[in-house]
């Protein structure tokens, strides 16, 4: 049967089982929008800015194990989407972005709303395509979904010129896909896995360091089993939170720039380190030279060979899907007669507990001014640690990561790699649509929320009862903190003057807003907000203006060169 | 250290820019890069001469392999290989120099492929250092123009890079 390119595009989405497309129409995608209109299977969510479409698709993908889909028009539609695409790329989120392009005969002529989409997005996608022949749409879409989801996941962009979406071709969706140049390795080398098992069994001070790869690979179960079997401490990266249950006694908290004392010192002082789906980035290990100054054996499991020995030299590299490799490692360990060195582990735990007793996350609460940490603790308590929590970027993000104890994967949704302010609210929309009955909280700041505040309108249209937890300290808090520590208290352009009345703003968009100024009102306000199950409630918490995030490993410093709250 | 990397990639629009973009985005050096179709019209062969520490070269190989359009990658320095480069040199060839240039070209097994009253155009192939030596051997002031292809390389004996 002959179909137009636009019809084929929508058919492909149906074939892939796509539930939601987040998008914004425009000239180059009019034929595709016309086909969306004629069917009901694929639901379209109209955002208010293309960046939000991509973040919403991203939040949808992170909170499920599905591919997020966004649809934007050519030119500014694409350039607006780039921040979202780069965000997904840095965090390896499976996503397909469909963009309209000017008609093929206009390409290169600086036509109205023309940009070199494939060129602009090339450095921040896993792969991209410009479809110049309508007969190639179906096979390209099949490849796009396959690439997005397989191997190390990532965003894939398909650019479709307007005339191609209008032309007709025979349609059949390919049953299989074969890309000769792309064969991601899923199973790890068994020899290396045995070497890893041996190192772990002989270790005196072993440590497990698990990242976002555990979440993406749905390997929490295997990780938890492994950590318990070995009796070792486990830390998660910002991206890995929820990959190991935070309530577990073997969990030593998040590591990195704002990680716990015990996690960072454990990382620095261990003799065998098992890195699982993590990539030793600068916010995690700080100064590479300092990290390498202590000898330790490193085992690194990652689906992406290029992530191994990129920043830190690895002794036992294992390329493969984390879930598969951990399962193999578990079966090797289970069939081994050797057991972990109990005496050495006992000493190691004694050391860890000593570090833990520093209580690096302790803070002094106040009855005068709202402490941001307290708000997150109350949020955790009221939602029983079971909410989906999205965040923007800055101090509030770190406090949410530190004080909301995530026991399950895919509950903590934040932009870890790119650090994109404006991510939280649109991501929460994607999460809420994927989980209609669930509690979704967006922890944000008064700076970040204004970067995509227009999405309050989308939330109204689609009745998304997100709870916005704004930790409003009137400062770009993380910038202010760095200025206090490293720039002689010169608060250059970090004070947020002329803030809107967020309660009125929420009301103007048809939502509810609550202003909270006293610590004694925090719990009540949260309770009230969560009781309003069908409404979006914007909670404007006026928090301590000068609170800092501790502990802190300053940029360029080593993990043991940490600033603790009590040091100041 | 200098490395010569040979790769096969899909003959798709934009494949070259993916490789070039990778090098600039990650701050890798490119000394030379050449690309042309192979006997299989769906694939192109690219030869890149780069330099860096062992760690950087390892990353370059891995990052190239990660590009979806790249079919296979071989670091020719990992084994025995042959390397050739083509150079075309146009020289000012009058008076005594005319004879001398012909003689030096012969010594380097170069060929004169175009002649005018005032100039020779000499074709020379060999390793990069041989071409450099030729340029040093002739009077620098006589050189009007040089065109070099950058190195191409191939493994010795049974060492092949194929799909």
TrEMBL record, chain B:
GO terms for biological process: isoleucine biosynthetic process; L-valine biosynthetic process. Signal peptide: none annotated. It holds the Pfam family ACT_AHAS_ss. Residues 4-78 form the ACT domain. Its EC number is 2.2.1.6. Pathway: Amino-acid biosynthesis; L-isoleucine biosynthesis; L-isoleucine from 2-oxobutanoate: step 1/4; Amino-acid biosynthesis; L-valine biosynthesis; L-valine from pyruvate: step 1/4. InterPro entries: Acetalactate_synth_ssu, Acetolactate_synth/TF_NikR_C, Acetolactate_synth_ssu_C, ACT-like_dom_sf, ACT_dom, AHAS_ACT, AHAS_small-like_ACT. Belongs to the acetolactate synthase small subunit family. PANTHER family: ACETOLACTATE SYNTHASE SMALL SUBUNIT (PTHR30239), ACETOLACTATE SYNTHASE SMALL SUBUNIT 1, CHLOROPLASTIC (PTHR30239:SF0). This is Acetolactate synthase isozyme 3 small subunit.
